[in-house]
Amino acid sequence: MEFKLEAHRIVSISLGKIYNSRVQRGGIKLHKNLLVSLVLRSARQEDTDTDEEMETGNVANLISIFGSSFSGLLRKSPAGGREEEEAEESGPEAAEPGQICCDKPVLRDMSPWSTAIVAF
Amino acid sequence: MGEDTDTRKINHSFLRDHSYVTEADIISTVEFNHTGELLATGDKGGRVVIFQREPESKNAPHSQGEYDVYSTFQSHEPEFDYLKSLEIEEKINKIKWLPQQNAAHSLLSTNDKTIKLWKITERDKRPEGYNLKDEEGKLKDLSTVTSLQVPVLKPMDLMVEVSPRRIFANGHTYHINSISVNSDCETYMSADDLRINLWHLAITDRSFNIVDIKPANMEDLTEVITASEFHPHHCNLFVYSSSKGSLRLCDMRAAALCDKHSKLFEEPEDPSNRSFFSEIISSVSDVKFSHSGRYMLTRDYLTVKVWDLNMEARPIETYQVHDYLRSKLCSLYESDCIFDKFECAWNGSDSVIMTGAYNNFFRMFDRNTKRDVTLEASRESSKPRAVLKPRRVCVGGKRRRDDISVDSLDFTKKILHTAWHPAENIIAIAATNNLYIFQDKVNSDMH
């Protein structure tokens, strides 16, 4: 369990790094982002057993980190209502609730690197 | 003038306060020239400072020549790429000296996108006694000119002039990480994350692409180029390192595009050391050929490795730089320290290798005796003429008096850039915004 929490934490940290790289001076550093995406993939692989938990938590993380900048990837859905509530509770970073544009199963299958590219 | 002096005094003491560092002053590269007479540093503010070694004084034969500032110039300025809405940093990533061919010195300096060739010349004489101009350069009244004189060269205070002779722009889409001058003294290469270009030193409007590892679909990207260097003697050979920890030796005679390597140097990963961060710590941050050309030195996050060009399967020597960090990789990932790119260096005879670490420590490994030492570059421990005391990091167990525990290491004080004089035991260590130059005492021992 502790190991999975650690993997979960590493996923959140990695997503934060990918987001921050967008606003860093000098442009996106390809090398660093590649390494971060590899860590993200390793950490996600540890969580393949607890898909359901991970995805809800993951989406909440994405929304809290990216806030309104993530609106390109998200659209409203019946399940979206639940995520929005979580986002509002999750912290000051969530500027506005996200909208889920692709179904949850698609989000689960997307590789971390593709997810990062789409988020850019 | 008095006011200016006061301002300068205030600024000086402000900078001596160690807690304040201007980001622009952070040194980003250090390089000796081929004779060791000159030492160039580049910083994040795009400036280059060149130091020159003073000739040894005959009056004090025991005092070796010290390095003084020779020239300072602004090499790169921040730029803006309007098409991509990106700012291009002025930070100097690398400096490489060209072999000296006449009285002038030349060097290449590069930021993320543009390489520049600078010529450094000295002027210590000026002509005096013109017929048509007076001392200030104003035209003389011709009626006052009654005789002709030949202008003579008179000595003047030494003036060092630096001018940009070539600007090699628009060659790279990605960030340039290294440049290397070929032994033919006519060409050089520049490498970014995905491509390596070959340039002729006299031609700026075109370059040849010699390595391209960009996949057709960027989502298939698995590795990037991290460093590259020409072989010191064979002008057709070069090596490049990757983020996966491999080295590729390429022969330019084999094909125009050297995507197929001649040799691939790779060590299989130790499965017992596997973690989330295995890929990051195996990424090679620097590669250097030995002076002999027989070996290569690589640095990854925790080790330095010596490779024999004749053996691709594994390195012939591996040295642990700071293995005690292996259990702290998660917090180093969080703080971004795990992405720090440390450089490595050979001494002139290829018998000792050196690399930096944290807490302003740097490490030296003697390849023959297998002894190693940890030294510190700090103002407190570096009074002029003082001998550096070896340091030790304790990892639990017996702790000696002056040991530092792993938890008290200062990870903001990192030595990423070091250089070794090509012939003598003189080293240049860049510790954030400070440059330390250490010289070896004749009979010093390695502990």
TrEMBL record, chain A:
One family name in Pfam for this protein: IER
Protein name: Immediate early response gene 5 protein
Superkingdom to which the source organism belongs: Eukaryota
Species assigned in the record: Cricetulus griseus
InterPro entries reported in the protein's UniProt record: IER
Family: Belongs to the IER family.
Annotated stretches, region: Disordered: 74-101
TrEMBL record, chain B:
Keywords: Repeat, WD repeat
PROSITE patterns: PR55_1 (PS01024), PR55_2 (PS01025)
Top-level lineage group: Eukaryota
UniProt GO molecular function: protein phosphatase regulator activity
Record carries keyword Repeat: yes
InterPro entries: PP2A_PR55, PP2A_PR55_CS, WD40/YVTN_repeat-like_dom_sf, WD40_repeat_dom_sf, WD40_rpt
Gene Ontology CC: protein phosphatase type 2A complex
SUPFAM superfamilies per UniProt: WD40 repeat-like (SSF50978)
Keyword Repeat: yes
Similarity remark: Belongs to the phosphatase 2A regulatory subunit B family.
Protein name in the entry: Serine/threonine-protein phosphatase 2A 55 kDa regulatory subunit B
Lineage: Eukaryota, Metazoa, Chordata, Craniata, Vertebrata
